[in-house]
Each structure stands twice: as structure tokens, then as C-alpha cells.
Amino acid sequence: MNGIARLVATALGTAVPAMVLAQPLLDVSLGKAASPQEGWQGFTDVEFLWNALLTLTLAAVLGLVFGYHPRTVRAADTLEEVRAPKVYTLYAVIGAIIGIMVLKYGLVVGFVVFGIGGLIRFRTELRSASLTGQVIFVTLIGLCCGLNLPHVAVLATAFGFVLIYILDARTTYRIEVQGLVADRFVAAAAAYRALLEQQGCQIVSEKKSPGKGRAVFIFHGGANVTRKSLEESFEHLDPALRGAVDWEVD
């Protein structure tokens, strides 16, 4: 118990001075910023909504430019690296939303948002950075609603809906083909690649490990390609060239 008491005392001793030092900054922010009390009247502020839309669009475009840098795309050889452009773009838009709220409604809002983002990032178990970004995105939308800023919430929702629809227009797959016979490895890997290309898939990365009898393909699916259709097509491969396929889908 004494150890816990000392720990609490230390934490309080650190936190209280920090709060005292931060108070003037908070007072300045609250004094200079507009109070977020606009409510439904915010939809009549056409100039603000238009400027916010342009800001979000610019952030998305710049995120795409960074994410689809030729060197970055060429060097991508894992599913996480292939996902990176989506993540860059989504987080750029998240940053723009935070900037819009801070610029119009004060620095305190930014502190709250960063606190929520950190809590989600480090305390929530999610399968990918892209999904984490989407969770933070919808949390910001909920925060806008709670701050009585429905116009910002609706604009961010509409923009995010279209953005995710565009970014996820193509499904990315990673397949690991195992158990390929060593003396037919080259032919087997070529057969899988040819089949994927026949289905209209775009090969992003290909890794071959003849010694382990393993080939890994990362590719974008075609317009009408699904995992089920690909699995059915794999069944038509020559049994002597066929291996066990492990899937990962983005």
C-alpha cells in the first residue's frame, strides 16, 4: 500500500504543476476562440462549409501524392506497405478535420481530439492501421455531434464516405502458396501468376522461395474478382502444380 501511495503522490505532484502551467494557455484558447454553440445554424454558413470542403479535398490529394510516390509503390512488398497510400490519405484528412476544428473553435478542442486519438490508437486492438484510421474518423464525427457542430459532422461524414469508397474500390489480396514440389516449382509459380492475370488481377509483388516450396503474391483484384471465384479457378490448376493457399484480404 505504501508503494501505491507513493506512486499516486508522485503522479499528483507531476500532474498538478502541469495543469497549473497549462491553465493560462487554456484560458487564452477559450478567450480567443469561438464557442462551439452554432448548432443547426452552422449549415447556413456556406462560406465556412465550402472552405472546409476545399481543405479536406486538398489534404486528401496531398495524402495521395505522398502515398503513391513512385519509389514507395515500387518498393512495396508486404500487404501493410501496399495499404500505406490509403492510410496516408485517411490520416491526412483526419489531420485536416482536427485543424478545421482547432482553427475555428479553439486549441482546447485539439487537445481533446489528440487525447481521444491516442486512447484509440494504443488501447484498442484493431487488425490494421487503415481500420484504426476509420475508427478515429468516426470518433471525430461523434465528437462534432457532441460539440453541437452537426454541419461539420455531416460534411466530414459525406467526404469520408466518398473517400473510403474511392480508396477501397479495389480489394487487395495476399496469397501464400505452400507445398509446391521443388522440381516443378518454377512451373507452379508461373501457373498461379498466369491464372491471376487471366482473372484481371494486377500483380503488385511476387516472392518465390524454391527451397521452402513457397510463393507469395500480393495483387489487386479485378472488377468482378472475388475470393470465391479465385479459389474456384485454383481448383482447375494441374494437381501436380497445385499448392495449399493461405489468404489475407484487405
Features:
250 residues, 4 strands, 11% strand, elongated
Largest sheet: 4 strands, antiparallel
SSE-based structural type: alpha+beta
Specify the number of helices: 9
Write down the secondary-structure element order: HHHHHHHEHEEHE
Percent of residues in helical segments? 55-70%
Strand content: 5-15%
Low-confidence stretches: 1-35
Question: Which whole number gives the mean pLDDT?
Answer: 74
Main sheet strand line-up: 2-3-1-4
Straight-line N-to-C gap = 48 Å
In total, the number of strands is 4
Overall geometry comes to: elongated
Specify Rg, calculated over alpha carbons: 25 Å
Outline the structure in words:
The protein is an alpha+beta fold. It has helices spanning 2-32, 46-67, 70-75, 79-105, 107-123, 129-146, 150-167, 185-198, 227-234; strands at residues 172-178, 202-209, 214-220, 244-249. It has a four-stranded antiparallel sheet with strand order 2-3-1-4, with helices on both faces. Helix 4 packs parallel to helix 6 (129-146) and helix 5 (107-123) packs antiparallel against helix 6. The radius of gyration is 25 Å and the shape is elongated.
